[in-house]
Design goal:
Elements (H helix, E strand, L loop, with lengths): L15 H6 L6 E6 L5 E7 L2 H6 L9 H8 L3 E6 L3 H15 L14 E6 L6 E5 L6 E4 L5 H15 L6 H4 L7 H4 L13 H15 L3 H17 L3 H20 L9 E9 L2 E10 L2 E8 L9 H15 L5 E4 L6 H12 L4 E3 L4 H39 L7 E10 L2 E11 L2 E2 L5 E4 L8 H29 L16 E5 L2 H14 L5 E6 L10 E3 L5 E2 L6 H35 L6 H11 L2 H6 L2 H4 L7 H11 L12
Parallel strand pairs: 7-10, 10-11, 12-16, 16-17
Antiparallel strand pairs: 1-2, 1-3, 4-5, 4-6, 7-8, 8-9, 12-13, 13-14, 13-15, 17-18, 18-19
Helix pairs in contact: 4-12, 9-10, 13-16, 14-15
Subcellular location: Cytoplasm
Protein name: UvrABC system protein C
Family: Belongs to the UvrC family.
């Protein structure tokens, strides 16, 4: 359902009361749009008509809300089956549409997990990023330190392996981890598959927070071993039980094992910090600070409510969430979280004892983190202001992009594009370009290709936007957001690279971008860089210049991102090409070999006899693989099988 559009010159105003008259009283989600079709706000409602009507009645409203209402050109609503369903849809839309007036999270770091793989001999490890490895994932944890402490504890208690598969498959004797009592050495058969499987299962129970069940099981097995006069096994289980109880005795919360998150919000003006203090199975997993975009809100309760709703829409909530202040919709949030987890989830704001002390601790840490962030942001603003003065910009750069090229002797050339806004890096908008069809080592052609691919999309998107406006139609979905251009474009290189960038922008008809080349000094020493401008000027601000420090920060990030992409592409190319060059190795055999040995490194470390044990590989082919990987003559009769 939509209301009338507001004319760009201020013609027809949005008639909120008329729009409300046609609304349903069902639960749902509403969206407010500005005249340029950008989303102003997304909200949920138990009663759409009543909630939306509250924006257009005569009751007093805060300045931020009045400013938002004044910009409404149209509204849309979506009816849902329940208020809990509306809550989920609201969170999804806030994340995808990024409305101008919603409080939203801005944490581009993925959470770390503990991974227990599903191999025959599972390994335990830290995992961050996509869950593309088969196994069980435990977490998320507030930070990598908490994960490492957990892994350390797992190795002490259950002695699971943490080595890579390629190392595990090629061990001939126990490693140092076994010698210091942190691994049972399954690589060389020093533990049976059944006993190792029991250790993995017990570790999983522990990570699942089922310590009471685990304690009962270990106690039962210990007593059974003693009855069978297997005193060695009984002593081992006794030590395990003692270590577990000792650890739990040090980390109990309120006299019982707890699973809870403690949240506190600190604000200065419209700057906010939400501090999360996590406990799982009675263990303190540490803290993590979040700095959400408040979009003008100065109400800590509103910020905290938005955080709780959005954060636990993506992360599994614990059984108990303790907040430092009351928020709206607590019964609804408890209902939604309980339904999503299949167990009761409670949200508390008035607590005593240890929990009250944890709230105080979280609040103080939130205030410290906010002060640190604001200090860092002030320094970032100072660097941005210095850059504005140095480049003669009329206002602070709101978007900076930097391009860099990375290759080794012309091999596997990769171009990177990193993006910074006023708050720092915007990692979700980083891009890599695999360069092809150029002479190896031609940096100018590589830069030209990468820039053309980046800005052709922007030029096409802007043309589509203009055509849509002229035709009075909606902007194509593929063009929305694609036409965003940087205020400053940094090119890592000298006059040749800058000339390539200038040529690309001129060809595509793109103007209004401040183009800057970043040339290294003679000794490649940080601070000696020369900034090359399109008008021929060369600036050498010096190491003390805050503006140059910002340029260095962006350039170094582009360099890091390019090198990472190049190394990955080069390794993939080498892994693939060296095996493809061997007669008799097709895609299926290549995949089997790499899977069996955990990669090219493990395959290269294996002997011909070990290679011949892989399904589909006979002795002659194994000898040919070994010889090719080690630069040896494969000998006579080394043709196809």
């Amino acid at each position: 359902m939509t209301g009338p559009r507001k004319a760009s010159g201020g013609g027809v105003m949005f008639d909120g009361k008329a729009f409300v008259a046609g609304l349903s009283t069902a639960p749902g989600v509403y969206r407010m749009y500005a005249a340029d079709d950008t989303v102003l706000y997304v909200g949920k409602a138990a009663d759409l008509r009543k909630r939306v009507a509250s924006y257009f009645n005569a009751s007093p409203k805060v300045t931020r809300t009045m400013a938002m209402i004044a910009q409404i050109a149209r509204m849309e609503t979506t009816v849902t089956r329940s208020e809990a369903e509306a809550l989920l849809l609201e969170n999804q839309l806030i994340k995808s549409l990024k409305p101008r007036y919603n409080v939203s999270l801005r944490d581009d770091k993925s959470y770390p997990y503990v991974l227990v793989t599903s191999d025959d001999w599972p390994r335990i490890a830290v995992h961050r990023g996509p869950r593309n490895v088969a196994g069980r994932y435990f977490g998320p944890y507030p930070g990598v330190t908490a994960v490492r402490e957990t892994l350390n504890l797992m190795q002490k208690l259950f002695k699971l392996r943490n080595c890579e598969d390629s190392v595990f498959r090629n061990r001939s004797r126990p490693c140092l981890q076994h010698q210091i009592g942190r691994c049972t050495a399954p690589c060389v058969g020093m533990i049976s598959a059944q006993d190792y499987g029991d250790a993995v299962r017990r570790a999983s129970l522990f990570l699942d927070g089922r310590s009471d069940e685990l304690t009962r099981e270990v106690t039962r097995d210990m007593e059974a071993a003693a009855e069978k006069l297997d005193f060695e096994d009984a002593a081992r289980l006794r030590d395990l039980l003692g270590n577990m109880r000792s650890m739990q005795a040090r980390q109990y919360v309120d006299g019982k094992v707890a699973e809870l998150d403690v949240l506190a919000c600190a604000m200065q003006g419209s700057q906010a910090c939400v501090l999360l203090l996590a406990f799982r199975d009675g263990r303190n997993l540490g803290t993590r600070a979040f700095h959400p975009r408040t979009n003008g809100s100065d109400d800590p309760a509103e910020v905290l409510a938005a955080f709780v709703s959005q954060h636990y829409a993506e992360q599994t909530p614990p059984r108990e969430i303790v907040l430092d202040r009351a928020i709206e919709d607590v019964p609804l949030l408890e209902q939604a979280f309980s339904e999503s987890t299949g167990r009761r989830v409670q949200i508390k704001t008035s607590v005593r004892g240890d929990r009250a002390r944890y709230v105080d601790l979280a609040r103080r840490n939130a205030e410290i983190s906010l002060a640190t962030e604001m200090s860092s942001q002030a320094a970032q603003n100072a660097r941005a202001e210095s850059l504005r003065e140095m480049l003669g910009l009329s206002q602070l750069a709101q978007r900076i992009e930097c391009f860099d090229i990375s290759h080794t002797m012309g091999e596997a050339t990769v171009a990177s594009c990193v993006v910074f806004d006023a708050a720092g890096p915007v990692r979700g908008q980083y891009r890599r370009y695999n360069i092809a069809g150029i002479e190896p080592g031609d940096d100018y052609a590589a830069m030209h290709q990468a820039l053309t691919r980046r800005f052709r999309k922007a030029a096409d998107a802007r043309a589509a936007e203009v055509a849509a406006v002229e035709a009075g139609t909606d902007v194509p979905a593929a063009a929305e957001g694609a036409g965003i251009l940087p205020d400053v474009l940094l090119i890592d290189g000298g006059t040749g690279q800058v000339a390539q960038a200038r040529a690309v922008l001129d060809t595509l008809g793109i103007t209004g971008i401040c183009l800057v080349g970043v040339a290294k000094g003679e000794a490649r020493k940080p601070g000696d860089e020369t900034l090359l401008l399109p008008d021929g000027r060369a600036l050498k601000p010096g190491a003390a210049s805050p503006g140059l420090q910002l340029v260095q920060q962006v350039r170094d990030e582009a360099h890091r991102f390019a090198i990472t992409g190049h190394r990955g592409r080069r390794q993939k190319a080498r892994t693939t090409s060296r095996l493809e060059d061997i007669p008799g190795i097709g895609p299926r055999r290549r995949a089997s070999l790499l899977k069996h040995f955990g990669g090219l490194g493990g395959l290269k470390a294996a002997g011909a006899e070990q290679i011949a044990q892989v399904e589909g590989v006979n002795a002659a082919l194994a000898q040919r693989i070994y010889a090719t990987l080690h630069g040896l003559d494969p000998g006579p009769g080394a043709g196809h099988d």
